[in-house]
Amino acid sequence: MGAGFARIKLDLDTGHRVKVFATSEEEAMRVYSMLKERMHGRILSMPVPEYTPQNGSLTSYTMIVKADYGALWRAVRDINGEFWRDDFRARIYSWGRFVDVYKGVGYPLDVYNIYHMGGRELYGDMWIAHTRQPTNSPGRLPIWSHPFASGEWAIVHNGDISSFGSNMELLWSLGYTSFVGTDSEVIAHLLDYLTSFQHFNVQEAAKILCNKFNKELPDPETVKQFYRWRGARLDGPFSVIAGFSDGHDAYMVAFADRFKFRPIVVGEDEDYIYAASEEAQIRTISQDARVWTIEPGDYFLASLREGVIYPGRRMPERFYSLSSPLKPPTISGECIDAAHMNYRMLNQAILEKARLGAKQIDIINVRGQRYIGVGLDQPLKLRVFGTPGNCLANLNTSLDIEVFGNVQDDVGDVMTGGRIVVHGDARDVLAQAFQGGAIYIKGNAGNRCGIQMREYRDQRPVLMIGGRVDDYLGEYMAGGVIVVLGLNYLETDVEVVGNCVASGMVGGKIYVRGMVSPSKIGLNPPRADVIQYLRGLLLEGRLSEDDYKKVASLKDFSLVTLSKMLPENVVKLVSKLYVNKYWKELVVEHRRIGEDDLALLQNHFEEFGRVFKLKEEVDRVIAEEYFTVIYPKSGHRPRVEEPEEG
Amino acid sequence: MSIWRRDIVSNLRALAGVEGKTAGEPPIASMGTTNPPLIEKPQFILDHIVSDGAQVTRPSIDPYREPTETEVYLFDGEVRLLMPLIIGGLCGINPQHILVVIQACFRMGVGVHLEQPPPPTLHPDVRSMILLDAQLSMPFSIDRGPLVYHVESVEDLAKIKDILEGIGGRRKLVARIPCISSQQLYSEIVGRGFQAVIIDEELGGDEPLEVALSQADHTLKRLTINNHPARYLMSLIAASRRIRSSSDIFKLGGLGADACVISDAWRIGVDYRSEMEPSLLSERIENLLIGMQREIKLLMGAAGVSSFQSSIVGSRELFRAIDLPQNMCMRLGVKPAGE
Amino acid sequence: MTRTEINNKSSPIVIEKYLPLPKKETREFWTDNRIHHIRHLASTGKPLMVWDRCKSETSRILDRVFFLREIEDGGEGDLVSNPLDVVEVSSKICYGRLELTYPLYLGDMSFGALSGIPNIAIARAADITGTLAGIGEGGLHPEVGKCKRIAVQWASARFGLDLDVLRRGMAVVIKIGQGAKPGIGGHLPGVKVVDIISQTRRIPVGVDAISPAPHHDIYSIEDLEQRIFALKEATGKPVLVKVAATNYIPYIASGVARMGADGIIIDGQGAGTGAAPSVVRDNIGIPVELAVASADEMLRREGLREGFTIIAAGRVSSAEDAAKLTALGADIASIGTAALIAMGCIMIHKCHLGFCPAVITNKIAENPKKILSLETATRWVVNLIEGWSAELKLILERLGLKSIEELKGRRDLLVGLGLSDSSLEVLGIRGVSSNS
Question: Is residue A235 within 8 Å of A241, Cβ to Cβ?
Answer without folding.
Answer: no
